[in-house]
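so my prof wants the structure for this chain in the tokens format not the other one, which i didnt know existed until like an hour ago. anyway here's the sequence
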Amino acid sequence: MEGPQEGAMEPFQVGDSLQIGRYFLEVMLHEYQQGELELVPASNSSSSTDSSSSTDSSSRSSNHELNLGPMVIDMGTRSFRAGFSGHYSPCAEVGTLVSRRMSSEEGRASTIIGKKALLYSDAETIEVMHDGFVINWEAAGSLCKYLLEHKLQVNPNEHALLLTEPLFSPIAGREKMAEMAFEMLGTPGLFVASQPVLSAYAYGKINALVLDMGHEATRVVPVLEGKSMARSSKLTDIAGRCLTWYLSTLLNDAGHVLSDGMSHMVEIIKRACYVAADFQSECLLPPSSHTVDISLPDGMKLTLGKERFQCPEVLFNPPSSWGESFVSIQETVRKCLMHLPKDIIPTMSANILLCGGSSLFKGIDQRLCHELLDHLPPGLMVQVGSLDLKRHAAWTGGSILASLHNFQSCWIRRDEYHESGSCIVHQKCF
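here's what i got, hopefully its the right format
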């Protein structure tokens, strides 16, 4: 298990501050390490010293059961990611493949996590997520339990848990999340935070336009003063799943027919793709400039050529035959910006942040910036941020938040849950 690596990421700058509800995240050092960030009241911090000291002493005894360090779990459509707060990236990840199989010996159903389910023809696959939302909380709880107990080898009863949630998460879903955390996992503390907001925190921002490019969809979400402007967000169906399908089509057209059971390799082949700075110019280059050989697990070699830049080009120029819901990412960003109050547009356009697995293509940030400059009003500054860990941006933001010393008073505690019920998640989680 690895901690933060030196020089891997510097999510904050000296003097930055993130306002979260009633608190400020004060960044006191140029390099983030656990314990270096402080949460202080957003009101007059100097006048509240006496009262805060009494609060600290009264809450110290209730903090003892959380002293082993919080865990962070980011629940995505294709995978769940987990790790210890204070780390830059998650320590464990598991795909959302859950199956149930009847045991002939014991006469009861057993849950199978991951690719092991493919070994049993009689296993029933359970759909855990749909369109980014959990639809089977028992299966989601099994995945979380597997991550914590088997992958990270920790006892969920001894660690507070920060869970991420997607935009427009239903009220019932939030309450189910609390029930899963306290009743199935037995966590002593829980906090639920918005994925776009956490992604902004990973970049050290409280004001940003988060471009979250996932598997099911791509969404542009304005984050203002540490809160998501959900109603101003825009969505397009251009996302990971259609890119995978399109690359499969390109490979078939080029004569690369994958053997049975190898269709999942398209996801791996997709990693070799890149975004062209200028698509037409790229097409005129000699094939040797973009040809690469990829070794497949079955021993075969696949030569990838112009498909490398043809695949992600649909992010910027989706075929009209795909339908009106497949809008280019630059147009989705433009629509979002132009529907915001005029006074915050310059701030948002200068803080466009990429995150999600479909934002990993090399060159995507420069191309997006160029496209936006051509389609936005002249004189508007456009900057597109891109972190090495942008696939895990929401998790990283949660790791930063959960590691703060004074944030520990924000947890929903086990006794509070049992006293108030699952509805307490709406009262304590901003």
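also thought this was worth mentioning. The longest strand covers residues 218-224.
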